[in-house]
């Protein structure tokens, strides 16, 4: 019950003032790259030195096709991953720490300005957080000898 309340709070905090400021350069770049289509994204990323891997732009392209390209819609895509990160963080903490630390750590993560702010940008930051916490969880479980950690 507390975790559900934390997730709802995280969602509300990340939605608050979602379109308060206009797109900044990097968010506009996300739209520019995602609007190139699935093959065009790959070609752009392949030829642009220092550009991020294409998975975020592919997912954003598919999101824009369904939800539109407004500031709210593009930033909401990141909000979703920001809230998903909170749930994945709890899962990670539950696997590696004793009760009640996972719940306490998760509830402390909900209002962190860093996490809330980056959840409101049309960039890949929250997707990277989700992949990172999953990778840490699976690696630590594998290192402990849980050979089937990746499929559980």
Primary descriptors:
mainly alpha; 0% strand; 152 residues; globular
Overview of the structural elements:
The chain starts with a helix and ends in a 9-residue tail after the last helix. It is mostly helical. The mean pLDDT is 93. It is globular and about 45 Å long. 71% of the residues lie in helices and 0% in strands.
Brief write-up:
The protein is mainly α and 152 residues long.
Can you lay out the helices and strands and say which pair or pack?
Blueprint: H1 2-15, H2 25-34, H3 37-47, H4 55-67, H5 71-96, H6 101-109, H7 113-118, H8 125-143
Structural Rg? 17 Å
User: DSSP helix count?
Assistant: 8
- Class inferred from helices and paired strands: mainly alpha
Q: What's the helix-strand series?
A: HHHHHHHH
**Strand content of the residues, in percent?**
under 5%
Mean pLDDT: 93
General form: globular
Would you count the extended β strands for me? 0
